[in-house]
Specification:
Elements lengths: L2 E5 L5 H10 L5 H15 L4 E7 L4 E6 L6 H7 L18 H6 L3 E9 L4 E6 L8 E5 L9 E8 L1 H6 L2 H16 L4 H5 L25 E4 L2 E2 L9 E11 L2 E11 L9 E6 L2 E6 L11 E6 L19 H20 L14 H12 L5 H4 L1 E15 L43 E10 L4 E5 L8 E3 L3 E5 L3 H8 L3 H18 L7 H17 L4
Parallel strand pairs: 2-8, 12-14, 17-19
Antiparallel strand pairs: 1-6, 2-3, 3-7, 4-5, 4-7, 5-6, 8-9, 10-11, 11-14, 12-13, 15-16, 18-19
Helix pairs in contact: 11-12, 12-13
Length: 523
């Protein structure tokens, strides 16, 4: 017997769903697709079907996942609840449907799980969003899983097209529709040139039962991006001796479509960010890459298109990946266009680094950091180097050369940490305080860039072709200009790590540099 439940939120839902839409850097019509696909992935679906009927204004999402139990289905309609636990997946249950209320006449949801089956109709009326849940009633779903039907309004009916839906999948879920990369996620055997990825450390497949996407009945399967590359290198990061990221980067023969340019950093197959790790490599339009890092899920923002500023897990990953990426760029000759290290910057570098040591607000640059160091000790034990430890002869640390390594770019070593096991003498762990990174200043003429200067975590590069720099040359105020843009670059980089922007903090930091300028006649 069908049992009906009616409900509505006690808040101004119209304003709330608009606020949800405002969290995304694109239209809610696009965000809704991303969220609904993410929910299907979290439900361990092996088949995700998207059907678009422009004539009737209907957009359907059908998966064969686990479905929702009764409690989850009721929470699905609650604006104050989410059935997702942080770290368990990339979707927020109900978020796609809530976004759809902005542009749909009605949202119909059907779900069938091991313990429950039911459906609901949901719509926006005035400032409220009433819904009606029907236990045991299904309209078209005939298997375990969930089906969401968006009954589009006139404007949104014209917004969508089959081609645009496929483009959204390519942009945000391309590793899952690349015919070779998807095998990493499903555990299938690699074939062709991508067999090199089989040499990466093994891990349990994320979607071990398989995964397919259908759009209007046609399977979406893209040609391998990897096969377009002339040069490539596998990439992996380990924590506590266990691999936590996998991937590659490489350069293609020809310029790539914009959605493939840069290194895609993914979580469970969702492309969260594309980056060159604050580098400006030559032929960047030909550079692509893919990194799968499930453990970064805790740092993903609500819109799934960024990582949280200031999140320590993300910052730590970024620094390690940046060092590896820089090394590859140098190896293949794609490092930034040649920059000039001017002698007249030497004194400024010295003074800037001196200032940073006295500015706790910029601890990333000038602070002191405590790290574990393995020291030979006959009463100790065979040890493996951990993150950021300094290498000492006789310890177990792989083949990294030099007196020490640090995860912080700009250190004397400038190398990435090693956690590979080796064979060595007995040793004990000791704590040592080391200095933070040293900032370098360089010069380049880049008329193609709008920035007066940029900082990549190691070097502030002054753009000699920028109109402001050229004007400073004419007015014989280059030294003042250089100090200003260096300070602004460092402050901007530091504030990127803040959860929320603060004009007050930016002003205070800039004032500190200004106070220094008044004390130093040269600058």
């Amino acid at each position: 017997m069908t049992i009906y439940h009616e409900g509505k939120s006690g808040v101004n839902v119209k304003r709330l769903v608009q606020n949800i839409a405002d969290q995304y850097p694109f239209e809610p019509q696009k965000a809704s697709i991303i969220e609904l696909v993410a929910n299907s992935l979290d439900a361990k679906a092996t088949l995700i079907e998207i059907n678009f009927d422009v004539n009737n204004g209907v957009l359907e999402f059908i998966d064969d996942g686990l479905g929702m139990d009764r409690g989850q289905f009721f929470e699905y309609h609650d604006f104050a609840a989410s059935t997702k636990e942080r770290g368990s997946g990339i979707g927020f249950a109900g978020q796609g449907a809530k976004l759809a209320l902005n542009f749909c006449n009605k949202v119909v949801t059907e779900t069938w799980s091991a313990t429950y089956k039911g459906s609901s109709e949901w719509q926006l009326k005035g400032s409220d969003a009433p819904y009606r849940i029907s236990d045991a009633a299904l309209f078209g779903l005939n298997h375990f899983g969930t089906k969401v039907t968006l009954c589009l309004n006139e404007k949104s009916r014209n917004f969508y097209s089959t081609e645009q839906i496929i483009q959204i999948l390519k942009e945000h879920f391309y590793p899952l529709i690349d015919v070779n990369l998807v095998k990493f996620y499903t555990g299938e055997r690699f074939e062709g040139s991508i067999h090199q990825l089989a040499l990466l450390p093994k891990s349990k497949p994320i979607y071990e039962k398989g995964l397919r996407f259908l759009v209007n009945g046609k399977q979406i399967a893209e040609k391998p991006v990897y096969d377009l590359l002339e040069s490539q290198k596998g990439f992996s990061i380990k924590l506590s001796g266990k691999p936590v990221t996998f991937g590659f980067w490489g350069i293609a023969k020809d310029e790539l479509p914009e959605i493939y340019q840069g290194v895609a950093i993914c979580v469970f197959g969702k492309v969260v960010d594309r980056t060159w790790f604050k580098k400006e490599p030559r032929e960047k339009q030909k550079i692509t890459g893919w990194i799968e890092a499930p453990y970064l899920v805790e740092a993903v923002t609500t819109d799934k298109c960024r990582f949280q500023r200031g999140n320590p897990t993300w910052d730590k990953f970024f620094r390690k990946a940046q060092v590896e990426f820089s090394g590859w760029l140098e190896q293949v000759g794609l490092m930034e266009q040649s920059v000039t290290r001017k002698d007249d910057f030497a004194n400024l570098e010295k003074e800037i680094n001196s200032i940073l040591k006295g500015m706790p607000e910029l601890t990333f640059f000038g602070g002191k950091i405590q790290r574990s160091v393995s020291i030979p000790d006959l009463d100790g034990e065979q040890r493996e180097l951990g993150e950021g430890t300094q290498k000492v002869e006789g310890t177990r640390g792989g083949s990294t050369e030099g007196a020490g390594v640090s995860v912080y770019p700009g250190d004397e070593s400038g190398e990435a940490p090693t956690i590979e096991q080796g064979i060595g003498a007995l040793a004990s762990s000791h704590t040592r305080t080391i200095r933070g990174g040293r900032i370098r200043i360089a010069y380049d003429e880049r008329p193609d860039k709008e920035e007066e200067a940029w900082f990549d975590g190691e070097t502030v590069t002054i753009n000699g072709a920028h109109p402001a720099h050229l004007r400073a040359q004419r007015e014989k105020s280059v030294q003042y200009h250089v100090v200003k843009v260096v300070a602004l670059s460092l402050i901007g980089f530091n504030l990127e790590k803040e959860p929320e922007s603060s004009y007050q903090k930016a002003f205070e930091l800039l004032q500190r540099f200004s106070d220094y300028g008044e004390k130093n006649e040269e600058y």
